């Protein structure tokens, strides 16, 4: 059962929060000393209400220790400091792979916090969450077997024109159809592939499946662009442009039907080789997108050197832009910058109509996210396209 841990050196606030938690039927325990809290074993189903400003051991130090211990609990940050410090603390917690679900500036509305805790607790009790927590992660041998036996499949998430609502393309997203585990999502096996030198093979498989699916769609009278993520392994293979051209020629497909998404981190290795390969891909007609823009270390340098056709704004900025002024400013600036460099702007993580409306006001070109449609199998995508009109996006 979900337990609420309250870490706040102000005993009056700690007791007030405890009473609120118990009023909704949940167990709680409060600590006015962070060192004592750090001795407790916290489960993934639990919620931590953490005040940043504490004597002896402060909230930032607690975040560091929780990250070091691999804490999987839900984290709610509370602070009497200005929003800038709270925002930085959120970023730090996320960098430590902690699950930050909300942050509050003192004084805050108790009712708002109560509603949030009730929702988190209810979501934690859902069957899907329970199964996820109990199931061990896949092994490298299982992944090797999956690659050898064609267990990887593709789902496709629509990308729509922000102004007209028309379908502009889809992003191919890999899934693992495991014979015993069921459908396994990429967050459970991509890092496994990267750590065991399998990411190149995995990406090659995704590219091949995308080309094959594009051919099937063309034969059925449906045509759209497919965006595919490629790894650092792929962009250090000098033969890649020729291999892709040959594959498309064999399937009688136009290279403009494929856009390759490259993360900034993937470009940080052998930049000269990557520049060679990516430039030749553009010369052959393929689209190039810089993915997760704004999260790397040399964004402007990469934009200057590599002939990208598309800039994809990281979803962390998109999802928070209607509540966070800094994220909003970053998104607006990225759109202006991309247009100045003759690139199309793609926003991923569009989860509300408010976000979509704001992107439209900012002049963003393309949007994708759960508000528009979740990733779906190829057949389901065709049904989705047939049942909607362009105005459905707006």
Q: Could you characterize the architecture of this molecule?
A:
The protein is of the alpha/beta class and 394 residues long. The chain contains 16 helices and 14 strands. Strands 6-7-9-10-11-12-13-14 form an eight-stranded mixed beta barrel, surrounded by four helices. A five-stranded parallel sheet has the order 2-1-3-4-5, sandwiched between helices. It is globular, with a radius of gyration of 23 Å.
Architecture blueprint of SSEs:
Layout: E1 3-7, H1 11-23, E2 27-31, H2 34-37, E3 47-51, H3 59-68, E4 74-79, H4 83-95, E5 99-105, H5 110-124, H6 127-134, H7 140-148, E6 152-161, E7 167-178, E8 182-184, H8 190-195, H9 199-219, E9 226-229, H10 240-250, E10 258-263, H11 271-283, E11 287-293, H12 299-305, E12 310-313, H13 315-320, H14 325-340, E13 344-348, H15 353-362, E14 366-368, H16 378-387
Parallel strand pairs: 1-2, 1-3, 3-4, 4-5, 7-9, 9-10, 10-11, 11-12, 12-13, 13-14
Antiparallel strand pairs: 6-7, 6-14, 7-8
